[in-house]
């Protein structure tokens, strides 16, 4: 009886063709993505080595399929079938992801998303390109099956006969491989050629550098399997020596001065010093959540010594804490006076801050908050349209001016579109919020700010807790204790220190705070519900809370606009309830609202008019993704006006500080060859708005190359200096503000101090692969790879502010040489310092977060 598989003679050739086509297609795409980073001569020299494992995989698959029957035949067929299915899924995903983002898919990141309900929906948004590429490659496999089978079969017949007498002539299940037995001389010639070629390729493979060529040679499915291998155990117990030792020498140490605890990096407190530490006079009887290191330091002498020597570790035995006195990177500006215009305003009138609202804005690029006619993005749009005359240009400017009128008023920055004032204010923004602040008033607009992470929730931790997120993939922060108290923890401490019986009648300074988090999209993505609790929010409202029929403001017709949740206005009644409840019950609010519409896929509610900010060709636009994003920017701009209008309507506008901060930017193909934030270090993902709005504060524009780590100390500084806290709270805040790494934006920003630069580190989504390194003291920027899979990248933002001409190299010292030649000695010196400091910073974050893996 004929073997079962022989009844389907085309099955095995098709399966073999799938292995070959998908394996080589994956490698070709992989090499194509690195075309910019390797010299052409090196690429050609090492090209054969890149395909060595792909060829071996194909040969092994052919051999496994050549067995006709029996247990070995079945096992071989099953194994090749399994690998084929894996290849189809993995390689189609690679092509689909590249089509959407221009980047390489990372399997460990994909697996994390797939295990998350909301993350899985994110992956499903790429199903169309996945199916398109899988269909295309499967069709190609079917067409090429006879040719691939013939080539591999013929080669195995020739070399196999000569080497071990192996013959595939009787292997009837692989058609087109049956050839007459070749003459002895000819078959040995074929074997000789194959062996010579193999030895040459192996020789080149031994000679070539490991980086980047080992990474470029990775082959499906081995790269897929390697992504799931367990990492080696890591647990950092001691602070590493700072690499720029001359900047932290004892002669530069600073003594204590009032609230300032001094600066002595590298020193170690003695046991006697530790034993004499006392809790501050304002310390509560029991510390609230978020003050873990205070509990460890002050509970007893024994605990003090444990904390100081770093004895307890997660899973093992180490507990590390942050100490500003020992932080070699810390630069404080609290010794400087508050900005003069703010001082004058405080002398002239009271500036009460009863409530603090923090509006965290998803994918908020600074160049669209607001869009300005002087921007690079604006010029790109104009160039794409090529307006024929002044009238066409005026009409286009009219549409662009209507995109971000609320952001213009929040920041005080004019779009400068040269429109008639009556049209701009009366027609274009007739239904928009209009700032009621007096001329010259409105708050502080920060220009030059960068995000601390292009992963949203890591950025959220930075802006709410004043800490540097940990440079590991995804949210380890949820599993650890935040090494500084978040602003919500501090406000809870204020509540705990209030005397019983204090209420609304005694004034706002004696009222208790309530912290609330609001967003209209899911809280399940990456365990955001747990993160909210971890950061100290007392109440959180997510999509899951408003989507049930029992929800207070549930109604028919609620529709999700993307895979994360609802349109922004669905949260409006809950926001209004929260404010009204606080007013009625004498509460002070700390309220965070996270916008969401500007997240991919930039969906808008039905009925919202879509503008063509970019020109269309027929039914499509070459700038479709960016156009959708800009429409979502316009939608969110109007929504922010609605929020500001509600704050005025409820009567709290003149006693509310509103902090607007972007979680990260958003790169498009108009900016860079890689779209999105995933493993993309381009500057467009990092420039974000930071605005501290209060109608009674003077309108100021502060230029500071700061990160959102400055938000918490700035809020505390404002609460202290506007006399918005009672004496006890003010005493506490005046101590705690000295603990944070970020500088206050209420005072002149120090770009450097005693030779030390104000370094700004930015973690690149997903966290553990790349790091953005910048400094307020220099215009340079480094993208530092944390694995061997990425290049180093350098830019001079003073000459190339949009990073259109990045310098990239796989070898750091080669990059230094190139930078020195093109940008001079100072730039090369900065680059070497930046790399050293950044690698120190990575280990220091892991130590402070008590990170362990393995």
UniProtKB/TrEMBL annotation:
Database matches in Gene3D superfamilies: Alkaline Phosphatase, subunit A
Residue ranges annotated for the Sulfatase N-terminal domain, each copy included: 508-719
UniProt keywords, alphabetically: Membrane, Transmembrane, Transmembrane helix
Protein name: Sulfatase N-terminal domain-containing protein
Superkingdom per UniProt: Eukaryota
Keyword Transmembrane in record: yes
Transmembrane segments: 14-32, 44-66, 72-101, 122-144, 188-207
The keyword Iron is assigned to this record: no
């Amino acid at each position: 009886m004929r073997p079962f598989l022989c009844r389907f003679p085309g099955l095995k050739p098709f399966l073999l063709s799938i292995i070959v086509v998908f394996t080589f297609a994956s490698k070709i795409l992989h090499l194509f993505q690195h075309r910019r980073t390797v010299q052409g001569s090196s690429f050609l020299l090492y090209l054969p080595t890149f395909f060595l494992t792909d060829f071996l995989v194909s040969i092994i698959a052919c051999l496994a399929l050549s067995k006709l029957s029996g247990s070995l035949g079945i096992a071989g067929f099953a194994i090749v079938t399994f690998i084929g299915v894996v290849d189809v899924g993995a390689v189609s995903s690679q092509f689909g992801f590249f089509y959407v983002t221009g980047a390489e898919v990372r399997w460990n990141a994909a697996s994390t998303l797939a295990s998350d309900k909301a993350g899985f929906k994110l992956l499903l948004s790429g199903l169309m390109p996945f199916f398109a590429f899988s269909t295309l490659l499967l069709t190609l496999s079917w067409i090429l099956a006879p040719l691939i089978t013939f080539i591999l079969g013929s080669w195995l017949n020739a070399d196999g006969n000569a080497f071990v007498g192996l013959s595939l002539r009787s292997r009837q299940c692989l058609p087109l491989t049956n050839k007459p037995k070749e003459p002895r001389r000819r078959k040995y010639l074929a074997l000789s050629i194959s062996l010579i070629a193999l030895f040459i390729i192996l020789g080149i493979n031994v000679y070539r550098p490991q980086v980047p060529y080992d990474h470029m040679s990775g082959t499906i499915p081995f790269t897929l399997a390697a992504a799931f291998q367990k990492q080696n155990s890591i647990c950092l117990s001691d602070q590493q020596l700072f690499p720029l030792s001359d900047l932290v020498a004892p002669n530069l140490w600073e003594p204590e001065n009032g609230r300032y605890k001094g600066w002595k990096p590298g020193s170690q407190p003695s046991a006697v010093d530790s034993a004499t530490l006392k809790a501050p006079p304002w310390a509560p009887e029991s510390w609230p959540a978020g003050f873990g290191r205070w509990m460890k330091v002050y509970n007893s002498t024994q605990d003090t010594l444990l904390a100081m020597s770093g004895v307890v570790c997660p899973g093992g035995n180490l507990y590390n804490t942050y100490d500003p006195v020992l932080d070699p990177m810390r630069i404080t500006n609290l010794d400087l006076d508050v900005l003069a215009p703010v001082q004058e305003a405080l002398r002239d009138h009271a500036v009460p801050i009863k409530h603090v609202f923090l509006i965290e804005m998803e994918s908020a690029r600074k160049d669209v908050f607001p869009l300005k006619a002087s921007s690079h993005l604006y010029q790109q749009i104009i160039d794409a349209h090529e307006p024929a005359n002044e009238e066409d240009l005026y009409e286009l400017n009219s549409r662009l001016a209507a995109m971000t009128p609320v952001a213009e008023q929040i920041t005080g920055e004019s779009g400068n579109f040269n429109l008639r004032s009556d049209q701009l204010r009366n027609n274009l923004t007739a239904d928009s919020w209009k700032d009621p602040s007096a001329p010259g008033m409105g708050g502080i607009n920060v220009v030059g700010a960068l995000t601390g992470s292009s992963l949203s929730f890591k950025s959220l931790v930075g802006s709410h807790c004043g800490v540097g997120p940990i440079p590991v993939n995804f949210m380890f922060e949820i599993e650890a204790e935040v090494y500084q108290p978040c602003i919500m923890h501090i406000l809870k401490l204020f509540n705990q220190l209030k005397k019983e019986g204090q209420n609304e009648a005694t004034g706002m300074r004696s009222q208790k705070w309530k912290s609330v988090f609001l967003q209209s999209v899911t809280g399940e993505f990456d365990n955001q519900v747990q993160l909210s609790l971890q950061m100290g929010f007392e109440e959180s409202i997510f999509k899951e809370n408003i989507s049930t029929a029992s929800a207070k403001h549930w109604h028919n017709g609620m529709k999700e606009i993307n895979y994360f949740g609802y349109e922004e206005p669905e949260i409006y009644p809950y926001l209004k309830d929260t404010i009204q409840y606080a007013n009625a019950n004498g509460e002070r609010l700390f309220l965070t609202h996270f916008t969401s519409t500007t997240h991919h896929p930039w969906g808008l509610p039905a009925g919202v008019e879509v503008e063509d900010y970019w020109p269309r060709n027929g039914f499509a636009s070459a700038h479709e993704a960016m156009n959708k994003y800009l429409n979502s920017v316009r939608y969110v701009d109007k929504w922010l006006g609605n929020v500001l209008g509600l704050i005025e309507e409820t009567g709290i506008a003149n006693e509310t500080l509103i902090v607007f901060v972007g979680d990260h930017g958003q790169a498009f193909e108009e900016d860079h060859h890689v779209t999105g934030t995933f493993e993309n270090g381009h500057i467009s993902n990092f420039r974000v708005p930071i605005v501290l709005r209060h109608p009674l504060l003077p309108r100021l524009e502060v230029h500071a190359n700061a990160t959102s780590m400055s938000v918490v100390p700035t809020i505390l500084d404002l609460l202290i200096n506007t006399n918005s806290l009672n004496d006890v709270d003010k005493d506490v805040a005046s101590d705690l503000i000295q603990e944070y790494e970020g500088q206050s934006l209420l005072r002149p920003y120090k770009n450097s101090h005693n030779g030390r630069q104000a370094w700004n580190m930015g973690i690149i989504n997903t966290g553990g692969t790349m790091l953005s390194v910048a400094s307020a003291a220099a215009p340079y920027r480094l993208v530092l790879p944390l694995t061997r899979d990425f290049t180093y990248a350098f830019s001079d933002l003073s000459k190339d502010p949009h990073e259109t001409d990045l310098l990239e190299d796989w070898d750091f010292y080669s990059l230094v040489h190139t930078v020195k030649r093109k940008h001079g000695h100072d730039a090369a010196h900065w680059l070497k310092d930046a790399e050293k400091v950044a690698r120190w910073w990575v280990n220091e974050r892991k130590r402070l977060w008590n990170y362990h893996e393995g």
